[in-house]
Specification:
alpha/beta; 24 strands
């Protein structure tokens, strides 16, 4: 346990940092006086006003946010700008400053912008003012005795493959992660996902130790009137958690969930989809760390705008230089990227720092979405992706620095839930969408429903978190879509480079023989498409079968005819396919795209540059960076459920070791 008296000494700012902040305030106030509803008379009055506001923020801001915290949370921080600007407007006239209209909002934003610019110019990365504010409030919130064993912070970098992480470290993009590895405090290990390689399956396994029957990102349940289940949408994710949870999740014992799909069986949640419909859980005490410093949210807004500018520049660059593969991102994607890469990132880090400084929680799990979102749309190794990882590394550094002021030590695990593999899409390569290709192989009077939407990963609805909509490419409402699903005779779904074909006139999973009898051309034409790697079907005579253009693998008998269709898909692919085939909702035909091992490319059935969900390349190869003194088996880790066991076991070991040392 750390010396609490020593921790009461808040981190002091250097004179250089104080001067930067002071100058930024003065310049910011002068800038917004031009052309806005803001008048300034004398420089001396501005200087006095800045000193007054500095003292006001130290003494009275904590009391203000204590009263108005619910408003700040329910407005997702916008209330902070109004409140901060309102203080400027109220006290400004006492110093000869009159702030009205848009000046109320732009004053804190302009000051934040100037602070960021000056800090960058003078090479200052100093968060001590922020730590000061958070620590003061954390000390007020701290209750009871300090625990005498370390806590654990688990940071998930969504979609980052092991090999891409290593490349980022080698390029100098992630110096904090490199220092953790070079200092021998942490050990890096590659692990292998289940099939499918996507967040729904991985987080169910990691946070609940069970991802049974999650066959893909979305699937059809024939027994449930052909309704579609998927790993997004607040009501759907809630149902999935109810299915996979046994009440012993990773976070069940005094844990915290920050921006995850599933809760890990904790009620201490922020932006956790499985419990986000409970509006009472949105107002969480951990938000205090985001608003403890009056300028913090303004800083976040400025960074969001900066990221939007980066995205606009990126879209122009990709078009002018004809960077391939490329998809159309459009103007709507600009705020989506900034929201995931910056806004959610900063909220995650802020709340985790607050959690540590209070020191009560034993384990927290937080998902950072930015890299995954950007790699989907720009590419796995695009400059945009490196930019996201550089920002992610800064967050890890902030967390490590924040740990210095916690009353107890926290250990850190940095990991990912899956990777991504690059490549032009099926539609770009073949000239026709996969659903249209399948439709051309079936009788034209069969009704088909297809959902191949690409902008629908697990947190796509984070900006409308209380919506009950199902992702819907035809913009139907929920009732209309359910009706269409129940009446459709063929349903085709996509999950990255994995596609699922359900023949829904029949209420059971059709066998290979039945499909060939009913639709003689279907299987043969699919496997002969040059962009299809293999299909998985179940034979009434031979069991599970993997069929490709030049060979068939009888999985139950471990017998191959012709060329092995799985030779480029890893040593554990047979295990993954047999497990997926045993799931309750496995489709009649499971389709995986081709994999070009030489160029490390797949083709997504969605319109995404970087994709995951199937097999082929790095999408199945995430990583875990864990404390070097942990007990982790030397053999390879296969499956998210085994990551749960590693984390759960070492959590228990941390607590047990403290008892032994007493």
């Amino acid at each position: 346990m750390r010396d609490i008296d020593e921790l009461k000494k808040t981190p002091g700012l250097s004179l250089k940092s104080y001067l930067i902040m002071f100058i930024a305030n003065v310049i910011g106030l002068y800038l917004i006086s031009f052309g806005l509803d803001f008048t300034i008379n004398k420089l001396g009055e501005v200087v006095l006003f800045v000193f007054f506001i500095s003292i006001f923020n130290v003494v009275l801001w904590p009391l203000i946010i204590k009263v108005y915290m619910p408003v700040l949370v329910w407005t997702f921080g916008i209330g902070t700008l109004i409140l901060n600007g309102g203080i400027f407007a109220f006290f400004g006239p006492l110093f000869g400053l009159n702030i009205t209209g848009w000046g109320i909002i732009l004053a804190p934003l302009t000051i934040a912008l100037i602070t960021i610019v000056l800090s960058s110019l003078f090479g200052i990365e100093d968060d001590r003012a922020y730590y000061q504010a958070v620590l003061r409030e954390a000390q007020r919130k701290r209750k009871g005795n300090i625990k005498d064993y370390p806590g654990l912070i688990i940071v998930e970098i969504d979609g980052l493959a092991y090999d891409v992480l290593c490349e980022a470290v080698d390029k100098g993009i992630m110096p904090t992660v490199k220092s953790m590895m070079d200092g021998k405090t942490h050990t890096l290990k590659k692990w292998e996902t289940d099939l499918s390689s996507q967040t729904g399956a991985s987080q169910a396994g990691i946070l609940h130790g069970n991802n049974e029957d999650i066959t893909a990102f979305r699937w059809v349940e024939k027994e449930n009137d052909n309704q579609m289940m998927q790993c997004s949408g607040v009501t759907k994710v809630k149902i999935i958690e109810e299915r996979v949870s046994d009440g012993n999740g990773l976070l069940v014992e005094n844990g915290a969930s920050r921006s995850n799909l599933f809760s890990g069986d904790t009620d201490n949640v922020i932006f956790t989809f499985s419990k986000i419909t409970d509006l009472r859980k949105l107002y969480n005490g951990a938000w205090f760390s985001v608003f403890s410093n009056p300028s913090e949210f303004a800083r976040i807004v400025v960074l969001v705008v900066e990221d939007m500018v980066h995205e606009i520049h990126s879209q122009l660059k990709h078009r002018l230089l004809n960077i391939q593969p490329r998809i159309s991102r459009g103007i709507k994607y600009v705020p989506v990227r900034a929201g995931t890469n910056v806004f959610m990132r900063e909220i995650n880090t802020g709340t985790l720092i607050g959690d540590m400084m209070i020191g009560d929680i034993d384990v927290a799990y937080s998902t950072y979405l930015g890299y995954d979102e950007i790699a989907h749309h720009s590419g796995v190794r695009d400059d945009d992706a490196w930019f996201a990882l550089k920002g992610m590394d800064r967050q890890i550094k902030r967390l490590l620095d924040g740990n210095k002021y916690s009353p107890r030590e926290y250990q850190f695990v940095i990991q990912s839930d899956h990777g991504q593999t690059n490549g032009a899409t099926f539609t770009q390569r073949y000239g026709e969408s996969f659903e249209d290709f399948v439709k051309s192989l079936l009788p034209q009077d069969l009704s088909m429903y297809a959902n191949m939407s690409s902008n629908e990963d697990h947190f796509a609805e984070v900006y409308i978190p209380f919506s009950d909509k199902i992702d819907n490419i035809r913009n139907r409402n929920k009732e209309d879509e359910e009706k269409v699903l129940s009446e459709s005779e063929v349903i085709v779904l996509a999950s990255g480079n994995l596609a699922l074909i359900y023949l829904t006139q029949w209420d059971h999973r059709l066998t290979y023989e039945e499909i060939n009898s009913l639709f003689p051309e279907l299987i043969n034409e699919i496997v002969n498409n040059e962009y299809i790697g293999f299909i998985l079907v179940r034979s009434s005579e031979r069991g599970d079968m993997v069929i490709a253009k030049n060979g068939t693998y009888y999985l139950d008998d471990d017998e191959i005819e012709g060329k092995n269709p799985l030779e480029d898909f890893g040593d554990n692919i047979v295990h993954h396919l047999k497990r997926n085939s045993s799931f309750k909702y496995t489709p009649d035909i499971l389709v995986n795209s081709f994999y070009d091992a030489e160029n490390d490319e797949v083709c997504a059935f969605e319109e995404l540059v970087g994709s995951h969900g199937g097999v082929g390349g790095s999408q199945s190869e995430p990583f875990i960076l864990y404390p070097s003194d942990w007990n982790v088996p030397d053999e390879e880790i296969v499956g998210a459920e085994n990551i749960y066991r590693v984390l759960k076991t070492n959590l228990e070991n941390i607590k047990e070791s403290s008892k032994i040392n007493k």
